C-alpha cells in the first residue's frame, strides 16, 4: 500500500488554527504521521493487499472520514463504525479491515515520542471533538450556534498557545543557562568593573579536580577497580573527573569546605552547554540536559509553597531562566524522554536534621522513580546525619596537589597581571616560598585563592587561617575603596563604620539562615541594615536611616561584597560573623552570652569555621592559655557532640595547655573505644549505625593526630585505657592502628609492643583478635616466617578465615583477606622451596584443599598481586616438578593462573595454562556440582592432569 496525503499536522492546524499544536511544528507532525502511516501500510498490505486499491489515502480521501478516523486514533477511544457507515460501504471491505487498520496505526503512534503526547491528551480530544461536531452540525444552524462554535475554537487556540514546545524550551534554557554558568566570581585586585561583580570565564580559572574512592565491600568496588587500574595493573585510588559517571549514574561528592564541589558542578554544566572538550568532556553525559538545584533554596521553596522536586524544577525554569510556558507535566515529558542530569548542590547547607532527612528522602525517591543521572554535593561534616542510600557512589573530592596549585597560580596571574615579566617573576616567587605554609592552607582551593590575593597585595604569605580571612576581607574592601574612579556616596560616619555594619548584617543573616532560611529576602536585609545604622550611629529618624541603608547596600553591591541577598563570598559572611561575636561579646566581657551562642550551635557544622575564627581571635589577644582552656574544658564536659568541632579547631590554636589537649583526645578516644564491637565469628563487627554516628569524631581525631605528628600522645592514652581494663588491649591497639593508618607510625607490631610495654612480645593472643592478627601480618616486611605464620593462623582461626575480608570499625577503607598477605609473600620469595612448604601446610587436610579451591575458583577470589615475571613463572614450574602430590601440583598451577597476568605468559607456557583452565573447570564441576559421580570422574581427571603436566 502506498501512502499519499493524509497529513495530520496540516489537518489539525486547519481545524484549530496556527497555534493549535505548539509543542511541535506543522511540518514535524506531518512528517511523523506520514511515517506512522507508511509503516502501518506495510503491515496491512501483507494481510489486505487489494483493499482500497492498495492506498490508505483513498480511504481517508474525504474530510468527514478523516475527522472520524482521527478521533478513533486517540489512545482511550473505542472504534465506532456506525458514524462512518454513511460515508463508507463496509460490505465491500474485507472482514475486520477497518478494525485492523485503526489498531495498526495506533500501535505505530504509541512508539512515536512526538505523536504520543497528542493522541494521549484527553483535553485535546475533547476540544477537537467539539469542533468536529460543531462543524458537522453547522448545516443545521438552528441546532448549533455559530458563536458557540467560535468560542470553542478561541478556547482551544488559547489552550494550545500555552502548550509546551520542547525545541523552544531547549533554545531558551541553554541560551540563558550559558549566561548564568559561563562566568564565575573572580576575586583579583584589578577591578576595573566597578559596577558589577568581577567575573571571569570559568574555563580560564577552573582546575580539574581529582577524586578518591574508598573500597568498603560495596557493589561499586569491582566497577571502580576496572576504571582506576593503571597500565601496570596496580590500583591507583585516584579518580579523574571523567571517570565517575563511568561507574555510576548517581554520585555523592563529599569534601572539605572550599574544596571546589560547587565549582565542579558548574564546570560539568559548562562542558555540556558549550560542548567544550578543552577542560571536561564527559562522553556518558554530554547529551544530558543539566539541571542544578541549590538545596537550601529548594528547602525554602518546599516550606513556603509545599511542592516537591518536580514542582521546584518547573518553578526554577520559570523564575531563573524565563521559561514561562512550562509546567510539571512538561517536566515529566522531558525527564521520561531525554537523558537528564540533576545536580543537588549543598546538602550540608541544610542544618536542621529533620529538614535534611526530608530533603534526602526527596532526592532518593526522585532519583529512584525517574532514573535520571544525579550528582549530590555535601561537606563531610553533617553528612552522616542523612546519608544517601547505597545506590549512590560515594567519592571524596581531593585538595589540590602540587601540580594543581601551580596550574591555579598561573591561571590566576594570567587574568590578573598583563605584564609577562612581572607575571613570571611573581609566580616563581610565590611557588618558591609557598611550601612554608601548612598543607591545610595551601592545598585547599578556596584558601589558596585567598592566599594568592594576599601575596599579590603584600608580597608575603599569611601565617594562619584567621590572617587569611581577616587580611583578605580588609585588603579587598580597602583596595576597592582606594580606587579613585569610584564615586563613594556614603557619608563619612557610615563609611568609617562599614565593617561594623557588615558584621551586624552577617551575624543577623547567619543566625537567620541557621534557624529560618526561608525568611531571608531583600526587605529583611534592608531592615537589618537600617537597624544597624540607627543603633550604631544613634539616628532617631527611621526614614533617613532607611535611605542610608539603601545607599549602603548599593555601595556593597558595587564593591562586590554583597549581592542578591548574600555576601558574594562565604569568606566575608563567616569572617564578619566571627568578628561580630568577638567584638560584641568578648571585647565587652559578655562571656555568658558568648557561651550560650556556642552551646546552641557547636554541633552544627555550618558554624564550625565561624567558631574556629572566633577562637583564633580570642587566642591572638591572650598572653596565656586561661581563656581558651576555659572554653575547651567547658565544652568537653558537655559530651561527645562537641568533640568534632573542638578537634577540628585544635591545631590552629597557640594558647592551649597540654592538659586540655590530653583531656580532649582521651575523651574522644575513650568514646570511640566504647563503641568498638566484636562478634562471635572472630571478626570485628562493623556497626553501620555506629559508623554513621561516630565517623566524624574518628576523622577529626585522625586528622589532628596525624597533622600534628602526635602519635606518642595517642600511645600514652592507649596505655592508660589498657591499665584501666587490660582485656581491652586488642581493641585499643586496633583503634590506634586505625587512627594511624597510612602514616609512618602505622606499624602494628611497634604499636602493639609500645602499648603493652614489652619488646618482641609476639603476636596478639586469643581467638577473638582476628583483626589484630591481620594488622600484625601486614606490618611484617619479609617472608622468612611465612610457613610458621600460616601454621599459627590455621591453628587459631582455621582455613575458613583465610579468605575473609572486612572493613575496620571506623576507617573508611577495607582490609583485604589474609590470603593476600600470605600469597603475596610466597610469590615474592626468591626461594621456590618456600612455596612448596607453604602449600604443604595449606593442603595438609582434605577439607583445606577443598576450601582453597572453592575460594580461588568458585568464588573467584580477587588476588591483587600481579608482578610474577615469566622467568619466575618458569622457576615455579620447576619447583612443582619436585612435588610428588599431583593434586598439589594442580592447585599450585591453578593459583599461578590467578596470579599471573595473561599477556605476560607466552609460547608453550601459555598453551599449558589454557589447558589447565579446562582442568580447573572439570574439577570445580566434579567437587561442587556432581558429588555422586565424583570418585570415578576424579580418576579420569587425575589421568588427564598428569598428561597435561608432563607435556607442559
From TrEMBL:
CDD domains in alphabetical order: ABC_ATPase
Pfam families assigned: NACHT (PF05729)
Top-rank lineage group of the source organism: Bacteria
Record domain NACHT: where: 250-413
Full protein name: Signal transduction protein
Source species taxonomy: Bacteria, Pseudomonadati, Bacteroidota, Cytophagia, Cytophagales
